[in-house]
Amino acid sequence: MGEFAGKKLKWGILGTGWIAEQFTKDLIHVTNGEGFAVGSRTQEKADDFAKRHGLPRAYGSYEQLLQDPEIDVVYVATPHPQHHDNVLAALRAGKAVLCEKPFTVNSSELAEMIKLAAKKGLFLMEAMWTRFLPAIVKTREWIKDGRIGEIKLLKAEFGFCADWNPEGRLFNPQLGGGALLDAGIYPVSFASMVFGTHPVRIHSAVQMGKTGVDEQFSVLLDYGVGRSASLHGAIRLNMNNDAHIYGTKGMIHVPSFLNARTASLRVEGAEEEVFTDDRTSIGYAFEAQEVGECLLRGDKESSRISLEESLTIMGILDQLRDDWKLKYPFE
Q: May I ask which residue range the UniProt record assigns to the signal sequence (predicted)?
């Protein structure tokens, strides 16, 4: 058992944006942890966040949050160009870390974070909440049990039409904007989950926008021996956001896969099997619960999305951006 065995973990929330709000709201559904403190760049924002979510402590800087000895684990919820520095600071402060996706903006930053976590003997995980949703857990069970045979094709997409704001997070290259890191990581990570290996070839097409970021893309990941993933993402185009997994014996359909509530299994000669998740939480509670279980066991990473896999996924995103000649100004 780990050092946290027998206790309820105290979460520190680093950041006060929309995703921090969603995650903190969902902590009421977590049995092995609770919201405890928040850190912001101003005391006013921290106090407001803490009051609305019932957190006993609020700090007007990230540094103050990380210095609190009672905090067991930190959720990094800042914009993704800040993840690298924020995670390193948390690790140096001796905190276990759950970092919002994408882990970083490139694989070299992630490798540095992984190296420090290993050196300090601390837990680190990417907050890819999709992995822990019950409908996705069921999908993985169907795949593992061979219900659809050998998987040959995955089709997955995530696209939405964002309001045009050249200075906003999605369109500003200084903020790591673009479809790939914000939307595209979902289908790429889903493909990694389904095939469990690195593609042997990567092909893509991209539509670059006025501000110099990718606004729409299509990717074909070739895994060899007739296995492939057709993936799409966009920030100025609405998509169905479904995933279809085709195997030699049947198929799995996951509507709105990134926040899935249902999954259906269709095998030739059998009645369709439908799994429905009747959760009352938003869905972020499942990843927080996983972190707690790992820490209580003394694990330094999650087997459901390992650090090595996150690094592989980030490497794919790197290669795509390299092919597109897309480099952020701060890199």
A: none
